[in-house]
């Protein structure tokens, strides 16, 4: 073109951005700027979108400055694009500042901030923003609802998730793939896997995102065979798995102790030319091997893989070494973790537990001294349960709850019934250097047991008791829940960091492997 108008430049930049050629879009803008061409809101918004795709925060800040100079920063297209980049680059405070300064907020602006909150793990803030949007009469879109349902799923908010499901049906968005996938996810994360599958089965047409949501749901609930059947069905229907599908299958095999099946899916991934294996897939495979006691093989895979080992991998290996008393390899993994995560006190605790499990109390004291000296903080174990619209949180040895006397009385009643059937406390699960009687007392008042006792005295007898926990459930509490389910004829569902445990008639859905 001998003569290029502003529309020509804008069209070319937008074309590069939409085609995924973000670097070319940025280079063309740079050339345009050097030539002193006129810049419009469309020029800036298209170029900033290219920054979002590349997480190019420095370039975005420069473009934000140009927008200020040209008085285009309050434009809805430009402001939304800047907000989106800041949110994607974990600069959520800056994103909020841009949002508040915008005089005219479009539906895309609201949706971008909703998604930003969710992507940054600020789920409660996303729900607060949603309430504000409703008060202001902001129209709901499928993108908004999908993000808010994801927030409910992450917080396991069953009531809010159900209410949003009703809103979605009223708005006519229940057929949207991404909204449907979020609904499948929220019911699965709230412990209602049957509802999750019913929703999945109701969908006449499904894309890979919906299949992935259902497979991940089955994985969380230890429904291994159901997940494997879905994976095979995907192949039969020529819906090709993506990186998320393989990740869910490897995670399933890890938590179910299915080593050979894990190898099978990992080999399928490696041979699949349409999917590029990433560090998360290798992390899951390390977990598959480590959890099954093959810690040396997991160690070899760490050295062979085409990625640098992450903190997650070393943490998985350290946890496996704790379960299988491999203190030499545990020390190596811990040293790597101390370098990668110096502020994570949980790593020091895990190494201490490895030594305690093997009776090496001298090294236990040393590991605990290192924890104290490092200033790193360990996360306190908590369990919580919802009753009558209120969340009740418990810690080990809880004393502040208003119903604590009734809770302890109920717990004593359960232990009394357990003694009649010769139930024995797993004192080896307490890793303190104290007498066995003291170990038994320490284990007796773990947070999940207190939450269970509260559920039994507060909830109707015909509904499942759902307990959430921020750490992995210990072996003694797991055994306690199984026996308590048998004695009380109740269904208990415990969601720990790994998965959902369904305790019924004296057994657990995880098959005692988690």
From TrEMBL:
Pfam families attached to this UniProt entry: DYW_deaminase (PF14432), E_motif (PF20431), PPR (PF01535), PPR_1 (PF12854), PPR_2 (PF13041)
GO biological process, one term: RNA modification
SUPFAM superfamilies: TPR-like
GO MF annotations, alphabetized: RNA binding; zinc ion binding
Transmembrane segments: none
Matches recorded under PROSITE patterns: PPR
Domain of life the protein comes from: Eukaryota
Segments forming domain DYW: 426-514
PPR repeat coordinates: 5-39, 106-140, 207-241, 278-308
Keywords for this protein: Repeat, Transit peptide
InterPro entries in alphabetical order: DYW_dom, E_motif, PPR_At4g14850-like_plant, PPR_rpt, TPR-like_helical_dom_sf
Protein name listed in UniProt: DYW domain-containing protein
Organism: Triticum urartu (Red wild einkorn)
